[in-house]
Specification:
It contains four helices and eight strands. Helices cover 32% and strands 29% of the residues. The protein is rod-shaped, with a radius of gyration of 32 Å. Strand 3 (58-63) and strand 4 (70-74) form a beta hairpin. A four-stranded mixed sheet has the order 2-1-4-3. A four-stranded mixed sheet has the order 5-6-8-7, covered by helices on one side. The longest helix is centred in the middle third of the chain and has 18 residues, at 76-93. By secondary structure, it is α/β, with parallel strands linked by helices.
Length: 182
């Protein structure tokens, strides 16, 4: 019995992976565009595939829902690479807003307060939101109004470059307030 060599089939992209190329195009006729962007007109699929083969390129279906579908002769690998590169560039330019947290205590010293406010300013300048958390311990819970005064002081200090996204509210043993850059 002879053993036949089985070659792996070249993986063609499915319709969900991207545009149909070459023999995967099902239409009988297509509106064809050459590599320079010039219209070749409406051609039969065989003529369009032959034209692409002459140039050593692929026939790629760009607009499958058009009648007839629009196909362009181009290097599919290069096209896919450039599309991926554009997507990566768009992803790089996105700014992900994070919520940074600053923890305070009701009886904070003046210098410590200034250090915390510098950090708040730096976070807001970086485009991030800041959650200011004021934690009460033990008997400090009897003087919640001191914490409210401290948060109103913070609000007054950041009023020039930040807006209050959520007003101070009490949650258990801590009071929180969220600031966002203007």
């Amino acid at each position: 019995m002879e053993s036949s060599i089985v070659r792996p089939r070249q993986e063609m992209p499915s319709s969900s992976d991207g545009p149909r190329i070459n023999e995967m195009i099902h239409s009988r006729s297509v509106r064809c565009i050459d590599p320079d962007g010039e219209q070749l007109g409406i051609l039969s699929i065989d003529d369009a595939l032959n034209k692409a083969a002459e140039l050593g390129l692929d026939l790629v279906e760009l607009q499958p829902n058009a009648v007839p579908p629009v196909c362009k002769i181009l290097d599919y690998g290069k096209h896919k690479y450039q599309a991926q590169k554009r997507a990566n560039e768009a992803r790089k330019k996105q700014k992900i807003i994070e919520v940074k947290e600053i923890k305070l205590r009701p009886n904070i010293d003046q210098h410590d307060y200034q250090v915390k406010m510098k950090a708040v300013h730096k976070f807001l300048d970086g485009g991030d939101k800041v959650k200011v958390t004021l934690r009460f311990r033990g008997r400090e819970m009897a003087h919640v109004e001191l914490g409210a005064e401290l948060l109103s002081r913070v609000r007054g200090d950041v009023d020039d470059f930040a807006k209050i996204e959520s007003m101070p509210k009490m949650e258990g043993r801590q009071m929180t307030m969220v600031l966002a850059p203007k």
